């Protein structure tokens, strides 16, 4: 507890003049607006919290579970991307326990499909690969699943390789929320879930796809890529996203 | 509709009943219907008609009488029940009405199975015709809502529920009064009331039975809830696999609307409430409240992180009250008799009664309602009649795939929310699967993990991939090919899923494994080290009791054993 | 006492060994600290006993690989998974989704005109899956990368020869 929060007995706590919440992240004091999430505050203050499904400019779904943090007083781990700050909140973004869980989650993602970095268009530019290294992963101790996954290259300009998909649903959200086309969605349950275009039609036959390519560029891995790129050549450009979201909001 | 009019319907109905000398009740719930009780009812009706006894003898289709394993069940009086009745028995049964009972079909009612139950939720089940609103009204139905509308403020309704100590019957046991009061205080208009009838636990059929046997009770519970929290629209989310429940609900809603008990300006007040059905397409995860709400909204049924809780931001972003069928079914009697009356039943923290579906290796499979705090031993041996064929009790699984397996030394534990949680299981919705020594606990754990893996929605990583990995390891153990490191990995995954999954499905998916690892560790060890399954379930066959797993998975397991990994 | 070093080539492209050779003049430095007692680069046929460090490249794909790695594990103190094939099964693992028969048919029957058919002798039989080494035997150190750079190998090797545990996640990654 920071000294400013200590209230002497018998005195009224001083109400802050503005609607500002003060909180601690990893022992340091920060202030934030009440509508902000733990991740917002962390991002503004260059505190690293791992995440894969979250992307600035898209809605948050809390699905990858990498951004789970410890909050004092809560017996559950809370996803930083959707947990709002409150006065006096004490957040721990890293601990041996969190690190172990995060590594296991990344490992599970590697076992789920066929992620072969060395032959991937996104090698060297991949969020999953980067996150694995950042979290200190040198091998996957769970056995691999080796599913038979498809590649849909029917679109004129883009390819989806389901072997590399981590089901973060960024493509689904960007298409729905930013482009407004809602070409992408998820079908199937559990381990059989996969992203589909239209009603599981070939992407090239999609009547709703505007070929804008936003899905390709928000995709964290090599699952979605532009045609004509060889190994390690596919670099994603995402700067447009927060800008588009801001413009959209200012119009509303 | 006011109290006088309601009373008039009840009186008329009761007078009609008095004219009847013999009422023959035939169970028309799913269990008995599936063994041809419709034919029995038709035969009885024809027999009565042929003898010209229609004035004095009435054949009535009723809801579940509880002892499903002995169906079709027929009751000719409060004390006289018949089991395994066939159409051919119709003449004999009609003969018996003014004579001696039919001995060969006799189903004794003075046994613990019936005597030790305490029926609140099921008070009308097996008594009234679920397709006639008048029958429900004659038993005091809709009096609670009509009374509440005329004499009680919404706040008073909530405080009665709070006093009653009623807790959510869907599994988690959240205090119902607190939930209602949160929704009533939440900002936002409109507010919604949802009834969760997406009962999906294997071996559980409590909600189904309530809906099939006494649908009006659920409607009345929702009406009272809607009045209390200030909602004007309600939804019942019922799984499409329950066609009979859906049919009876539809009939009930139509009847209630016709009498002005649903619709606008109910009982001449400003309170309006309508109820719509939404049919679930069979996803277990849609029993989770946020996934259920998404499904009602027409979206893919996946959960979302809470908070915000549905009480603040639920259906279409509005404050939403969501309770389970059995919870609503408890509400009318609480309002009728007062919260204090209800609070006298049960234990200090778990009030009232709970309906359990007994299944598995037990003499009396069926539906029972017992006061909270009764011991597992009483349920299994006294009410349930013990284990058939003189076998030994091994474990009871409560709470379905989210629950745990309790061993014999838990038998004397009282059945309430806290005790079950302390023992590593949960109350759950009320499924109870009894296992004897012929069950292998690893195989049981694998069965539930298979269920969770198949029913995971696929949204969050730990549940989607973790359940697959856990199932893989459990398959290897039951194929007798697993090794010590596999067991360690299994424990790691239990911890991961419990702490990092997005919703209750993933968080509780490890429970069957954790509870069997705790109570039956030696069985796991025997499978792994001695390559033996004491129950003789695992590894004995070519498939190792693993018909569902894919062929390549079997190769994988076999190969692992070859290399001694 | 000089350490006894071995390098092993299972199902891989030998790229990791090429990267090892890229140590260039640093090889001399390594040679001062260790004797290379077994390697595809030297002409010793029998895997000797009492090996301190073994760098293993490649996935476990065939019955021969399996036999070899199990034997090697028994004779080695510190077993190192060198490169993505041994750490993740990598490219050799790309056949796993298809099954051995489909792969062999494609290689030995469908695209062959002279004596088509999967050879039953001489060539070791393929296992149903190409696997990372640690799924078969215990592995002590993992060096991911395709291939790991010479600098990474040099760092890991010098640490190991000095009896220290290298910290590799900062130096290399899958696909590096």
Largest sheet of chain A: 5 strands, mixed
Gap between N and C termini of chain A, in Å? 40 Å
Tell me the count of domains of chain B. 4
Give the termini separation of chain B.
Answer: 74 Å
Assign the structural class of chain A, choosing from mainly alpha, mainly beta, alpha/beta, alpha+beta, or little secondary structure.
alpha+beta
CATH topology of the largest domain in chain A: Alpha-Beta Plaits
Q: Assembly type of the shown chains?
A: heterotrimer
Estimate the strand proportion of chain A.
5-15%
- Tell me the radius of gyration of chain A: 21 Å
Which features would summarize this protein structure in a list?
A: alpha+beta; Ubiquitin-like (UB roll); Alpha-Beta Plaits; 3-stranded antiparallel β-sheet; globular; C: 176 residues; alpha/beta; Rossmann fold; 5-stranded parallel β-sheet; two-stranded antiparallel ribbon; 32% helix
Structure in words:
- The complex is a heterotrimer of chains A (252), B (565) and C (176).
- Chain A has six helices and ten strands; from the N terminus they run ββαβββααββαββαβα.
- Chain A is an alpha+beta fold and 252 residues long.
- Chain A has two domains: 19-94, Ubiquitin-like (UB roll); 120-241, Alpha-Beta Plaits.
- Chain A has a five-stranded mixed sheet, with helices on one face. A three-stranded antiparallel sheet of chain A has the order 6-7-10.
- Helices cover 44% and strands 13% of the residues of chain B.
- Chain B is built from 24 helices and 14 strands.
- In chain B, strand 3 and strand 4 form a beta hairpin.
- In chain B, helix 18 (441-455) runs antiparallel to helix 19.
- Helices cover 32% and strands 22% of the residues of chain C.
- Chain C contains six helices and seven strands; from the N terminus they run βααβββαβααββα.
- Chain C is globular, with a radius of gyration of 17 Å.
- Chain C starts with a strand and ends in a 15-residue tail after the last helix.
- The chains are: A alpha+beta (252), B alpha/beta (565), C alpha/beta (176).
- Chains in contact: A-B, A-C, B-C.
- Chains A and B meet through helix 2 of A and helix 18, helix 19 and helix 20 of B.
Which helices and strands, and how do they pair?
The complex is a heterotrimer of chains A (252), B (565) and C (176).
Chain A: E1 21-25, E2 28-32, H1 38-44, E3 68-71, E4 78-79, E5 90-92, H2 96-112, H3 127-134, E6 151-152, E7 158-161, H4 170-179, E8 184-187, E9 194-197, H5 214-218, E10 224-226, H6 240-251
Parallel strand pairs in A: 1-5
Antiparallel strand pairs in A: 1-2, 3-4, 3-5, 6-7, 7-10, 8-9
Chain B: H1 3-19, E1 22-27, H2 30-33, H3 37-50, E2 57-62, E3 74-75, E4 81-82, H4 90-96, E5 106-107, H5 112-115, H6 133-138, H7 143-151, H8 154-164, H9 176-185, E6 192-197, H10 206-213, H11 215-229, E7 233-239, H12 243-258, E8 274-280, H13 289-296, E9 320-324, H14 325-337, H15 339-343, E10 353-360, E11 366-371, H16 376-383, E12 393-398, E13 404-407, H17 417-422, E14 431-436, H18 441-455, H19 461-478, H20 484-500, H21 504-508, H22 511-519, H23 521-528, H24 551-563
Parallel strand pairs in B: 1-2, 6-7, 6-9, 7-8, 10-14
Antiparallel strand pairs in B: 1-3, 3-4, 4-5, 10-11, 12-13, 12-14
Helix pairs in contact in B: 3-4, 7-11, 7-14, 8-9, 8-11, 10-11, 10-12, 11-14, 18-19, 19-20, 22-23
Chain C: E1 3-9, H1 15-21, H2 26-33, E2 34-38, E3 51-57, E4 60-62, H3 63-75, E5 76-82, H4 84-88, H5 100-110, E6 126-131, E7 141-143, H6 150-161
Parallel strand pairs in C: 1-2, 1-3, 3-5, 5-7
Antiparallel strand pairs in C: 4-6
């Amino acid at each position: 507890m920071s000294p400013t929060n200590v209230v002497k007995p018998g005195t009224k706590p001083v109400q802050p003049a503005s609607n500002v919440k003060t909180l601690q992240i990893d022992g340091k004091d920060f202030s934030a607006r009440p509508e902000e999430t733990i991740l917002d505050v962390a991002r503004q203050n260059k505190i690293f919290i791992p995440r894969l499904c979250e992307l600035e400019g898209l809605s948050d779904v809390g699905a990858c579970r990498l951004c789970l943090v410890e909050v004092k007083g809560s017996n559950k781990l809370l996803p930083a991307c959707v947990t709002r700050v409150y006065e006096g909140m004490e957040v721990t973004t890293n601990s041996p326990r969190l690190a172990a869980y995060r590594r296991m989650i990344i490992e599970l993602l590697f076992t789920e499909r066929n992620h072969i970095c060395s032959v991937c268009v996104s090698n060297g530019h991949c969020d999953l690969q980067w996150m694995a290294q950042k979290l200190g992963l040198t091998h996957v101790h769970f056995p691999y699943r080796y599913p038979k996954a498809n590649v849909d290259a029917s679109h004129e300009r883009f390819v989806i390789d389901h072997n590399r998909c981590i089901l973060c649903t960024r493509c689904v959200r960007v298409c729905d929320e930013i482009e407004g086309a809602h070409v992408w969605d998820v079908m199937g349950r559990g381990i059989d879930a996969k992203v589909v275009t239209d009603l599981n039609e070939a992407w090239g036959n999609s009547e709703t796809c505007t070929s804008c390519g936003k899905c390709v560029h928000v995709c964290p891995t090599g699952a979605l890529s532009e045609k004509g790129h060889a190994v390690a050549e596919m670099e994603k450009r995402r700067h447009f996203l927060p800008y588009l979201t801001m413009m959209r909001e200012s119009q509303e | 509709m006011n109290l006088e009019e309601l009373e008039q319907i009840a009186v008329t109905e009761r007078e009609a009943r008095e004219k009847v000398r013999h009422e023959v009740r035939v169970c028309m719930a799913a269990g008995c219907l599936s063994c041809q009780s419709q034919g029995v009812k038709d035969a009885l009706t024809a027999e009565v008609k042929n003898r010209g006894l229609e004035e004095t003898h009435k054949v009535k289709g009723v809801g579940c009488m509880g002892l499903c394993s002995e169906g079709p069940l027929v009751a000719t009086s409060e004390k006289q029940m018949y089991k395994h009745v066939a159409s051919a028995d119709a003449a004999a049964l009609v003969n018996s009405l003014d004579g001696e009972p039919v001995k060969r079909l006799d189903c004794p009612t003075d046994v613990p199975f019936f005597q030790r139950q305490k029926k609140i939720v099921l008070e009308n089940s097996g008594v009234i015709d679920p397709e006639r609103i008048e029958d429900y009204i004659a038993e005091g139905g809709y009096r609670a809502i009509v009374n509440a509308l005329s004499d009680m403020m919404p706040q008073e309704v909530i405080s009665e529920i709070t006093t009653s100590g009623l807790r959510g019957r869907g599994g988690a046991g959240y205090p119902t009064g607190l939930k209602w009061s949160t929704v009533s205080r939440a900002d936002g208009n409109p507010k919604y009331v949802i009834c969760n009838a997406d009962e999906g636990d294997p071996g559980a059929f409590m909600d189904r039975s309530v809906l099939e046997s006494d649908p009006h009770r659920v409607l009345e519970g929702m009406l009272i809830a809607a009045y209390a929290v200030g909602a004007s629209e309600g939804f019942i989310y019922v799984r499409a696999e329950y066609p009979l429940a859906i049919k009876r609900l539809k009939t009930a809603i139509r009847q209630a609307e016709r009498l002005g008990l649903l619709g606008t300006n109910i009982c001449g007040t400003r309170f309006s409430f309508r109820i719509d059905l939404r049919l679930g397409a069979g996803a277990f995860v849609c029993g989770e409240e946020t996934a259920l709400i998404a499904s009602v909204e027409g979206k893919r049924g996946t959960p979302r992180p809470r908070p915000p809780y549905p009480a603040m931001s639920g259906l279409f972003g509005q404050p939403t009250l969501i309770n389970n069928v059995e919870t609503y079914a408890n509400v009318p009697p609480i309002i009728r008799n007062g919260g204090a009356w209800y609070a006298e039943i049960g234990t200090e923290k778990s009030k009232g009664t709970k309906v359990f579906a007994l299944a598995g290796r037990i003499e009396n499979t069926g539906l029972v309602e017992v006061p909270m705090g009764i011991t597992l031993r009483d349920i299994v041996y006294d009410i349930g009649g013990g284990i058939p064929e003189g076998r030994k009790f091994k474990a009871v699984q409560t709470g379905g795939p989210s629950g745990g397996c309790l061993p014999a030394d838990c038998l004397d534990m009282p059945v309430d929310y806290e005790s079950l949680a302390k023992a590593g299981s949960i109350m759950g919705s009320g499924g109870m699967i009894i296992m004897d020594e012929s069950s292998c606990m690893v195989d049981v754990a694998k069965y539930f993990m298979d269920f969770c893996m198949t029913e995971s929605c696929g949204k969050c990583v730990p549940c989607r991939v973790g359940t697959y990995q856990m199932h893989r390891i459990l398959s290897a153990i039951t194929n007798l090919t697993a090794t010590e490191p596999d067991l360690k990995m299994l424990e790691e995954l239990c911890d991961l899923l419990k702490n990092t999954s997005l919703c209750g499905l993933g968080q509780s998916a490890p429970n069957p494994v954790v509870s069997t690892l705790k109570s039956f560790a030696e069985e796991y060890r025997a499978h792994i080290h001695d390559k033996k399954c004491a129950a003789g379930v695992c590894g004995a066959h070519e498939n190792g009791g693993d018909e569902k797993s894919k062929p390549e998975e079997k190769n994988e397991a076999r190969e692992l054993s070859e290399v001694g990994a | 006492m000089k350490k006894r070093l071995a390098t092993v080539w299972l199902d891989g492209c030998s790229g990791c060994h090429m990267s090892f050779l890229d140590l260039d003049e640093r090889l001399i430095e390594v040679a001062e600290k260790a004797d290379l007692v077994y390697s595809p680069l030297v002409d010793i046929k029998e895997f000797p006993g009492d090996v301190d460090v073994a760098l293993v490249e490649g996935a476990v794909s065939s019955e021969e690989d399996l036999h070899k790695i199990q034997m090697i594990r028994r004779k080695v103190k510190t077993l190192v998974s060198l490169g993505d094939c041994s750490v993740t099964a990598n490219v050799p693992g790309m056949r796993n989704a298809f099954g051995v028969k489909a792969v062999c048919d494609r290689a030995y029957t469908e695209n062959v005109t002279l004596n088509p058919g999967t050879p039953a002798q001489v060539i070791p039989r393929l296992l149903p899956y190409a696997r990372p080494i640690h799924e078969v035997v215990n592995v002590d150190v993992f060096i991911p990368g395709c291939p790991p750079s010479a600098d990474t190998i040099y760092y890991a090797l010098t640490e190991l020869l000095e009896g220290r545990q290298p910290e590799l996640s900062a130096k290399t990654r899958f696909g590096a």
